[in-house]
Amino acid sequence: MKCDLILALDLPDEAQALRLLDRVGAEVDVIKIGLQMFTRYGPAFVDRVAALGAGRIFLDLKLHDIPNTVASAVQSLGDLPIEFLTIHTSGGRAMMEAAEAVKRRVRPSLTLLGVTVLTSIDAAALRETGVDAAPEAQVLRLARLAAASGLGGLVCSPVELPLLRRELDASIKLVTPGVRPTGAALDDQQRVLTPGEAARAGASGIVVGRPIVKAADPAAAARSIREELAAALAPA
After folding, report:
1. DSSP string spanning the chain?
2. Interval 202-214 mean pLDDT
3. pTM reported for the whole predicted model
């Protein structure tokens, strides 16, 4: 099993983002473009990043609306060179099934990743929205619904990896943020694993931002993480 290194390209402007990709070179597997950059620069930015060949493209928009609107959005994005796209599982079965059906028609190679409970949400915040379940229970409920709706993967926190690997089919991709190399600053992340721990727990991909973005040598930082992932998954 391979675990991809996913670079979170969350930077204030396009010039900084492109400079970072030039410095990182081929040391990451996937480039994640989030709402910040996509809102400012649009689909053309996705094409520019893809043209650099620095990695496969993960478009992290967390779509959430009525089924027809989300399905139409997936269709609109179908011409972009993206491999992963996020949608909110809380949009329900009909929304996820509609998105998956359109995806299979317009871009079969695309994997829709379902977002369950945001890592910023705790039990108290869930209760405020009317959900009395513990975050882990709600994650599992939504994850099962996403799998039943045909989605090929999920975004989850590192601590949920063992639970989801036990409960879901092995073909489901699990992508996790909240990963920090040993000795790196936690910043605003509270529940974290190291890259090696996440890989051994069953992550299909880990999202890393600041430990690479802020490094004096981003390529060396990414290379070190890749080496840790490979070591973690090497046969004993």
Report:
1. ---EEEEE---SSHHHHHHHHHHHTT--SEEEEEHHHHHHH-HHHHHHHHHHTSSEEEEEEEE-S-HHHHHHHHHHHTTS--SEEEEEGGG-HHHHHHHHHHHHHH-TT-EEEEE-S-TT--HHHHHHTT--S-HHHHHHHHHHHHHHTT--EEE--GGGHHHHHHHS-TTSEEEE--B--TT---TT--S-B-HHHHHHHT-SEEEE-HHHHTSSSHHHHHHHHHHHHHHHHS--
2. 94
3. 0.93
Domain that holds residue 86: 4-233
Cβ distance 143 to 156 under 8 Å?
Answer: yes
User: Could you say which of 2, 32, 62, 173 is catalytic?
Assistant: 62
Over residues 179-193, the pLDDT tens digits come to: 877 655 444 444 568
Instruction: Report pLDDT for 188.
Output: 43
Q: What is the CATH number of the domain that holds 174?
A: 3.20.20.70
Total tally of structural domains belonging to the chain: 1
Asked about 2 being catalytic, the answer comes back as: no
